[in-house]
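Suppose you are handed a protein chain with no further information: no name, no annotation, nothing but its sequence. What can you learn? This example shows the usual starting point.
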Amino acid sequence: QGQLVESGGGLVQAGASLRLSCAASGRSFSRDDMGWFRQAPGKEREFVAAITWSSSTTIYGDPVKGRFTISRDNAKNTMYLQMNSLKPEDTAVYYCASGPAVVAVARQSDYVYWGQGTQVTVSS
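A reasonable first move is to predict its three-dimensional structure. Written in structure tokens, the prediction is:
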């Protein structure tokens, strides 16, 4: 049974950078498409970014385009989210997710495995 564990969250000031990691274990995730989602207080969880199993395609939600970069290292069973130029509105719990048969990358139900989340707080 697969497991995903996020790390790298924290409290930063606006304009700073953070890199989140998502470590996978328990099964091979090298053929899964993977993604990042986030949930701010009082809001629904939203799509942030996704990457195909081969890293050939990356897709980003509009709020983070040009500031965030998703990547993965299948040899290390790890996915990353580099977040630059952080804004207070990026404050949220960030979740990583994966699935062997993702059709619509922004559709949460397409993902089978989910991490517990890591808190990112951006102060103004």
